[in-house]
Amino acid sequence: MEPIAIVKGIAVPLTRPDVDTDAIIPKQFLKSIERTGFGKNLFNDWRFVEGDPSRPNANFVLNQPRYQGAQILIAKGTFGIGSSREHAPWALTDYGFRCIVAAAFGDIFYNNSHKNELLLARIPADAVERLMAEVQEHEGCELTVDLPAQTVTSPAGLSISFDIPEDTKRRLLEGLDDIAITLRHQADIAAFEERRKSTHPWL
Amino acid sequence: MGKTIIEKIWDDHAVAEDGGQTILYIDRHLIHEVTTPQAFAGLKQAGRTVRRPEATLGVIDHNIPTIDQDKPIADPLAALQVETLRKNCAAHGIELFQIGDPRNGIVHVVGPEQGLTQPGMTIVCGDSHTATHGAFGALAFGIGSSEVEHVLATQTLLQKKPKTMRVQVEGSLNDSGGAITPKDVILALIGQIGVGGGVGYAIEYAGDVVRGFSVEGRMTLCNMSIEAGARAGLVAPDDKTVAYLKGRPHAPQGEDWEAAVAYWRSLPSDPDAAFDRTVTLEADALAPQVTWGTNPGMVTAVTGKVPDPNQESDPTKRATIENALEYMALSPNTPITSIAIDKVFIGSCTNGRIEDLREAARYAKGNRVASRVTALVVPGSGLIKRQAEAEGLDRIFNEAGFEWREPGCSMCLGMNPDILQPGERCASTSNRNFQGRQGRGGRTHLVSPAMAAAAAIAGHLIDIRGIEPAELD
């Protein structure tokens, strides 16, 4: 994994609360056996009229010219609820997002995102509203998400602390691979398995 | 202080700690065609192997058609995904139930049916409805493809210990005559705590109502934990759990059986165990539940009405209701029972087991599906299909005008050809009413199997408490 430290860029406000992973990447695109190429179908059914990629829905926020090239998504409610599909963070990063800011995230989505260089910043719901208002008001508004400092800052001077588990932060900053971390404990795993053979012989 | 069942299972599987996370040992890993190709590719790229192929089982469920399963899959992308799973399982020595094998079916139906799901286990699968296995008192949760790769490589996961929530279902359903089912209880709970209410928690469902549920009913209850935001939900094992498992193909045998049962009996939460949060749900007043909106928390009693956004003072909540009603093409204050439907789907890992099919059949028997309605019945596994046919349920459904299909996930998520067309409205026994879930532009009302069957006959949503169901032979 590539390390993540600071994400600075245009932020898109997604006002619908509790966005589910079915909306992020609809099931008709889950038949790929690859990890890449999902960005073109991100939010497919909202982004395109009748789901037709040749007909962008001008009303959908991602299609507005002022938000092109955005790297940060701000969302209401609990973002990433529902299905465990890792295709959701794959689609978000493939599209170009590097950070999502919301008050809460679905548990599985949270784990999946941090394995895919997508930084999730959890901030209080009222702070989401304030950030969203500033972004909507000022075209070209760039936010800065600083992982070492655990802050989201805005041009108008908002500085909001975000919450992230210490170990997750370290792994993101260092770009560590979970499997490599775990394999350092191979001897522990083997000993555990050996022990369980006698305590739980039916397993 | 005592421990909760969640803590007991967690502590029993903690291999080591690393940087604030636990390396948690995984007893059972279930895999399917949709969320594993990238995991096996990652494994290969890193030059790693599968640590315990014998603790892993593959099924083919998400994208297979529910007709003509003896013929090749017509969709080339679905066929490639299935073929990729076959190759990966063969290359790593993992058992895979093939299409057409009666043991194949929906992953969360197959595990319990085969006795692979046992109390006290940690069970994972690249599917968010893995909590279904919690019905046995297992800690079971859904994971993403990177975590699938992690389990394949190490038989463990790096995890943070979840907070614990006890959901106490108080009162009694005895007066409902069977009309109020585990599906109604879990929908009511999601309505009460919201789709984000369980984020960060593992849930233990407790109380006399839960104890009164069959093991299959508990599976329905645990299945939808993720719809309340909780990755895992479980019920402590008891005599029913033990009786369900005895004699299943992968259940412990002989001396092992006695040792296993003794261990299982030690799992229930200690009387003085403390939970981080307790939620109480009153069952006495429950009516059959129906979702009206675009997430499972948008739910009401069948006797209720579609909500009126103008009654909501919070602007975000008001906009959410307006959006949902626009997508669902529903007007505020419409009585739920006046909503006409086009399709009915009976099946899924939530409600595709034999008891679900029997309940639905009681409302189908001797009746006829309304002329404008298409109704599918999709058994959760080949073995359930076989058992239902032995009981004559297929004949009841066919004679009533339901389509009797072959097993799979089917219209729960519509990755196979079973989908809603834009604008179609469905009464569904599945678990998600998200926009586009059952097909782009499709509109889903989540209900119990009996409610779905009765809606198919009536042509609209209907309160089953006004209908006398038939007896089955």
Question: How do the strands and helices of this protein lay out in sequence?
Answer:
The complex is a heterodimer of chains A (203) and B (473).
Chain A: E1 6-17, H1 21-24, H2 44-47, E2 72-76, E3 78-79, H3 87-95, E4 99-102, E5 104-105, H4 107-114, E6 119-122, H5 125-137, E7 142-146, E8 151-153, E9 159-161, H6 166-174, H7 178-183, H8 186-199
Chain B: H1 5-13, E1 14-18, E2 21-25, E3 28-31, H2 37-45, E4 56-58, H3 76-92, E5 95-96, H4 107-113, E6 122-125, E7 139-142, H5 145-154, E8 156-159, E9 163-170, H6 182-193, E10 201-206, H7 208-212, H8 215-223, E11 232-234, H9 239-245, H10 254-265, E12 277-282, E13 289-291, E14 299-301, H11 315-328, E15 343-346, H12 348-351, H13 354-364, E16 374-377, H14 382-390, H15 393-400, E17 403-404, E18 425-428, E19 443-446, H16 449-458
Parallel strand pairs in B: 3-4, 3-6, 4-5, 6-7, 9-10, 9-12, 10-11, 15-16, 15-18, 16-17, 18-19
Antiparallel strand pairs in B: 1-2, 2-8, 13-14
Helix pairs in contact in B: 2-5, 6-8, 13-15, 13-16
In short:
In chain A, about 35% of the residues lie in helices and about 20% in strands. Chain A has 8 helices and 9 strands. In chain A, the strands form 2 sheets. Chain A has a 7-stranded mixed sheet with strand order 6-4-2-1-7-8-9, sandwiched between helices.
